[in-house]
């Protein structure tokens, strides 16, 4: 089954908003062994939408469209869909009732005026219910191609995709080649190094492919096995996954959608250890990431963002003389901060970061990107100096990743 | 001039990575009054790339392609470009010298094996220099359509686009209609409310359009004026911008690419005030955002992430009896935290946040999403209760935005 996606919106085609729906749809389809062939984006322009629907309709068995179903005047997907498929646009009673019901619910929170525009649906279409918002979706068949229309709001779209669109598509997929995928996430080496490490694992002629995807500052290796049935695909995939794991060793921090934050969080819980943070140049980013995880209060005691020297002394007990002799960005200060936060918080582990995120503040000795990370634990205190490259945001991101990866490696060794 | 973009990559079409290049290219073109008509994405598959190049080439005067020029086996854009345009793929000496030079530079940092693959360029093409990476780009003319090929790494692509592709395109744009755009950013009301507030400002027949783009949790209103010359476009645009500003009033926090964080940061500097934070459920997110801005040490004294009650008492002096009587998520605790951090840090302003980000921890009285924000300043202490909706991430994001917006409104009133 050839499937295409179409995202509609001026804000997408003009680069004001990055489209995430196409990626979400692709992931959901991939999990069922289906692949997007083409993804197209056009603006809120009737003739562009009509052209896109005709072109994609010609080369696809199904087109999944998102965006342009809102209440405002610049949303014109329904009208374009009607014109492109030779239908009339009429008030749909079910859609109208839904708009009214949802609007009355939402009124408690924010005032949203009622709009009949969202009740106008092309004739000879079936509704796609939207439990999360006012805009119903719809689907229709035109010249042998199924076309699905959903609003662009990601949280509404995903529910409609899962509840209505996917079951409809899966019923109509003819003979299915089974696709199974697995992905491993890694932090540390560069793409070319990974490519060399993994040489010879892929075997496209047997239906086993391997892709490396760089998502600064980490990477994902995805294995994809295609076979006639589930067992054959699994037999192809699993040994390859094992080989990749063996070769990547400790670079690999997780598989699938498990983030570095999830891994570190799980390890803290499992080892029954607690942590407190003393952050300077990372400005709360590590605390934010550790507390992104629900239930983080089990291991996260407290965080401090000690930007000023006064705060480093008052909150962490870093001696004024040490700051005067070595400076706030120094190995000595980092380890005093780590030991200090461990002591005052009573946590098992104290982690401290001090450095120069830029763009200003660098010197010849300590250029922008110089970062000291210190790790105080029951069995010792370690401090390392790093030199990161990039802009302020890159340096802060690399600092947080490196600190989290260090925690991960430490916790892994403590059974 | 009809311009299309093509992004190539399995990780894009499979939804593992979100494409940002198309948006970047669109923004750069828009600034020059040019608009992308279609944006297409396909995977690293030779026949899909050839099909995409032929289709886009047929309907466009220029196609800007990104991705698939890397050193690894799954990158096959050069070969597909050669086949699609009837050219041979040959070693280009200039490209080879560049790959060698860049590889030797990069070797200091990370080991990247040398690859001749990146020196293979289709015949009858001109190189697009890449000062930031090993992969040169190239451009060629096929059946009256200019085709530009660049690597997918965003930081490399943008330089190549600005230095080579844009000057090449701008020299060949025939009669130019001038497009001027302006955008205003707002936080608070819902899309339909904004739409109603701004009714009648757009006037497409005169070349003035208005778009609303929702980027949770804020929105952007973009005005676009198209006219024969710069003066006419400006005359069309400026009064409309003033009207939008008048009607949005304090909802509007900035224009263009200026973020909420930038605005708050600038206000703190301008008013010569300092701030310290006591965060509970936002877990360092507000500190992270305030310190994202270079030079934030001028106004940001310290941040604390006081997850545990012990930390609230030890670091902020919140009385144990208060925590026992009212609980950590209470108006009383929030204001004690705000006053506490203001006092111990010696900052002008103390901001505190305590709430339930979920998914667990809610009760009938205080469901998930209940958040107290307290603001202690020289002229008083104010505490408000909010009820936010959404998942853990939404609630934390809304908490940070609401706190920052509160600071902004407070600072605006203090001349």
List the helices and strands and how they pair.
2 copies of one chain form a homodimer.
Chain A: E1 3-8, H1 10-13, H2 21-31, E2 36-42, H3 46-59, E3 62-66, H4 77-84, E4 89-91, H5 93-106, E5 120-122, E6 126-128, E7 137-142, E8 145-150, H6 154-172, E9 178-186, H7 191-197, E10 208-215, E11 218-227, H8 230-248, E12 252-255, H9 260-271, E13 275-279, H10 285-291, E14 300-306, H11 309-316, H12 320-326, H13 331-345, E15 349-355, E16 370-377, E17 380-387, H14 392-413
Parallel strand pairs in A: 1-2, 1-3, 3-8, 13-14, 13-15
Antiparallel strand pairs in A: 4-5, 6-7, 7-8, 9-11, 9-12, 10-11, 15-16, 16-17
Helix pairs in contact in A: 2-6, 3-4, 9-14
What does this structure look like?
- The structure is a homodimer of 415-residue chains.
- With 415 residues, the first copy, chain A, is an alpha/beta fold.
- The first copy, chain A, has 3 domains: 3-172, Molybdenum Cofactor Biosythetic Enzyme, Chain A; 178-255, Alpha-Beta Plaits (2-Layer Sandwich); 260-413, Maf protein, CATH 3.90.950.
- Chain A has 14 helices and 17 strands.
- Chain A has helices at 10-13, 21-31, 46-59, 77-84, 93-106, 154-172, 191-197, 230-248, 260-271, 285-291, 309-316, 320-326, 331-345, 392-413, and strands at residues 3-8, 36-42, 62-66, 89-91, 120-122, 126-128, 137-142, 145-150, 178-186, 208-215, 218-227, 252-255, 275-279, 300-306, 349-355, 370-377, 380-387.
- A 6-stranded mixed β-sheet of chain A has the order 2-1-3-8-7-6, with helices on both faces.
- The first copy, chain A, is elongated.
- At the A-B interface, helix 1, helix 2, strand 2, helix 3 and helix 7 of A face helix 1, helix 2, strand 2, helix 3 and helix 7 of B.
- Strand 14 of chain A pairs antiparallel with strand 14 of chain B.
């Amino acid at each position: 089954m050839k499937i295409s996606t179409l995202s509609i919106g001026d804000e997408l085609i003009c680069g004001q908003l990055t489209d995430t729906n196409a990626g979400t749809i692709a992931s959901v389809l991939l999990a069922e062994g289906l692949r997007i062939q083409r993804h197209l984006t056009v603006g809120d322009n009737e003739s562009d939408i009509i052209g896109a629907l005709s072109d994609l309709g010609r080369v696809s068995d199904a087109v999944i469209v998102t965006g342009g179903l809102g209440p405002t005047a610049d949303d014109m997907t329904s009208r374009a869909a009607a014109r492109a498929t030779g239908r009339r646009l009429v008030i749909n009673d079910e859609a109208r009732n839904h708009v009214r019901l949802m609007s009355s619910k939402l009124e408690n929170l924010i005032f949203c005026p009622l709009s009949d525009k969202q009740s106008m649906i092309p004739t000879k279409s079936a509704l796609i219910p939207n439990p999360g918002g006012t805009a119903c979706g719809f689907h229709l068949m035109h010249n042998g191609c199924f076309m699905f229309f959903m609003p662009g709001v990601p949280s509404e779209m995903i529910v409609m995709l899962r509840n209505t669109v996917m079951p409809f598509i899966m019923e109509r997929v003819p003979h299915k080649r089974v696709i199974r995928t697995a992905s491993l996430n890694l932090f540390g080496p560069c793409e070319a190094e990974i490519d060399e490490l993994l040489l010879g694992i892929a075997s496209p002629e047997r239906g086993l492919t391997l892709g490396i995807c760089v998502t600064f500052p980490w990477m994902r290796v995805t294995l994809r096995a295609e076979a006639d049935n589930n067992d054959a695909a699994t037999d192809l995939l699993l040994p390859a996954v094992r080989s990749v794991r063996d070769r990547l060793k400790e670079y690999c921090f997780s598989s699938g959608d498990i983030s570095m934050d999830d891994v570190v969080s799980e390890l803290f819980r499992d080892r029954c250890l607690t942590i407190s943070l003393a952050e300077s140049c990372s400005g709360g980013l590590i605390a934010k990431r550790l507390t992104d995880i629900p239930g983080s209060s089990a291991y996260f005691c407290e965080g401090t963002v000690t930007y000023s020297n006064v705060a480093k002394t008052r909150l962490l007990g870093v001696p004024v003389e040490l700051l005067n002799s070595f400076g706030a960005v120094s190995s000595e200060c980092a380890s005093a901060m780590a030991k200090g936060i461990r002591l005052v918080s009573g946590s098992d582990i104290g982690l401290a970061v001090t450095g120069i995120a830029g763009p200003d503040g660098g010197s010849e000795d300590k250029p922008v990107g110089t970062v000291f990370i210190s790790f105080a634990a029951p069995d010792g205190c370690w401090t390392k100096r790093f030199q990161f490259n990039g802009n302020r945001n890159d340096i802060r991101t690399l600092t947080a990743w490196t600190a989290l990866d260090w925690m991960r490696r430490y916790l892994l060794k403590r059974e």
